[in-house]
Amino acid sequence: MSATQLIPSVSTHIPFSYSKSALKELNIIEKNFNKILKKEMKLRKRFDGITIDQACSKDLDDGFWGYRDGENHVIQVSIADIAELILRSSHLDNEALNRATSVYLMTHVLHMFPELISTNFASLNHKKYRLALTVEITLDKNYDVIKIEIVESIFYNRNRLDYEIFDKILSNSNHELNKDILYLLEVAKNLGEKRKNLDFSDDDRKICLDNECSDKKTEILYPSPSFLVQEIMILTNRCVAKWLVDNGIYAMFRNHMPEYKGLEFSGMMERAVYNPKMSHHYALGLDFYCHFTSPIRRYADLIVHRQIKAFINPLKNKSYKFSELNSLSLYINEQIYALKQLQMKKEKLDNEKRFERKLKKILEEGEKVDLSRISIHTFQSIIEYILENDLEIPEIMFNEILKRIDDNLINKEIYFKLFFYSKSNLISNRVYFDIKTKYYVSHFYNFLKKNDFEIIHSFDENLLEDFDEDDFIYHFSIQILHKGEIIVEKELDSDNIQNGKRNLILSSFDLLKEWRDNVFFKKKETKKLWFIKAFFLFKFQNLFLYFKYF
């Protein structure tokens, strides 16, 4: 980093545009790209391969291939060499650092680099030659890494696969890629089984709001294309990290709770962070890990690329100092977190506007709207919007809500929100508590815990003196508190564990309904009435002062 490049402030808004200076540099790259490519093709080794991305993806930054070499396996992963095009401390570089990552919105992508670079010059597009850094990894017959080599390369994308094409290849044994894909899947399966933890937690690969075009964590099942790409990219990132450590190179390593290695956790763990020194990645069960595979959309990956290129060719490329990396890692950690918060806020606002429009349409068109045709997700979101904004549920929606409750088509979180927050007794009383369904019990408990409630329950075995030693009586007790105040307290004895638990929770639920009707709803109405009185009192006082002084 030169003296002219400063660490920017963490964003208070999502950046939507690029500076004029950056766009001028983009024009220069556009004019010279073919000349740069032609020159590098004479100097670099060529690798062919495939890319696998979602059909909507346009920024393709990872291509790969694999083959057997005797008993060994050779995996070649080529990643877009954007560091060759973007000079350190240039205006384009500063713009990318400002963002730290690409942002995937519902309707479009806010690229870390301008779209012409992200989707063209740096993207490993179909049937195109592109600048790349290639990691060639040799695995033995047990799938242990025995050799890692990294070179500057030219990558040619022979086949641009999306998930649908991938499935067609797998189902067609005569397809020219069928055996190759099956081989790569077999390698990926063995790599996954060797790792201690199969949960993929590459949480910054895409910062995304779009349900359809995202890399949000989902269940990954062999032999899906997601599974294949996941395992090859994890292999690459950990091999690059090991290569960096073995060569004594500081970079942007990805660490995750090293102090808790080997322990069991429940609930949400702390997120992974960047650091110039490698420690451990608990979520992936790896001692070496960095982000190398997405330099088009993550600035941390670009830094790793620059450190590698400086080691390979120190006369041409300058490396970052440790102090620079330390400052950059602190900034990027904070910037990514800030962007995620901004996105959550934007998503909430956008959704509120969207469901407000849908609700308005329902009210305006009345019986003309066929509510049964509204998707499960959209219908639930409209209900949630109504409840969160303390609105009345339109009567025209009652029958459809009741029908969906009976058909078990209401999300459990919203199910219990209807119980507590629906102003219609017809709806709130329809929410029944089926103790036979453990699914409802656990969701009900979770809902209470997340909404200012606390549950304390226990049961004890007591041997009765007047009976045989095989006869037990079980004592059950439960307390439900709301904001620290006990609202339900119940005890009972039973000679059967299952019946005891069932009867206790059913009776507790009945008491909870009484509290809801006699206390909770009345407090809400009183609070609302107080607000209205306060509002008019404020208006009256202002009016009084107006006449007094004027």
Plain-language structure description:
With 550 residues, this protein is an alpha+beta fold. It has a domain at 20-347. The chain is built from 14 helices and 13 strands. The strands form four sheets. It has a five-stranded mixed beta sheet, sandwiched between helices. β2 and β3 form a beta hairpin. α1 (20-43) crosses α2, α5 crosses α6 and α9 runs parallel beside α11 (412-421). The N and C termini lie far apart (64 Å). Mean pLDDT is 81; it is low at 197-220, 258-269, 463-469 and 546-550.
Strands of the widest sheet, in order across it, are: 1-7-6-3-2
The largest β sheet comes out as: 5 strands, mixed
Overall residue-averaged pLDDT value: 81
Q: How do the SSEs run, as a string of H and E?
A: HEEEHEEHEEHHEHEEHHHHHHHEEEH
Distance between the termini: 64 Å
Beta fraction of the residues? Answer: 15-25%
Work out the number of β strands: 13
Global morphology:
elongated
Say what oligomer this is.
single chain
Instruction: Calculate Rg over CA atoms.
Output: 30 Å
**Helix content bin:** 40-55%
Distinct helical segment count: 14
Question: Low-confidence segments, ≥5 residues, pLDDT <50?
Answer: 197-220, 258-269, 463-469, 546-550
Class based on secondary structure composition and strand pairing: alpha+beta
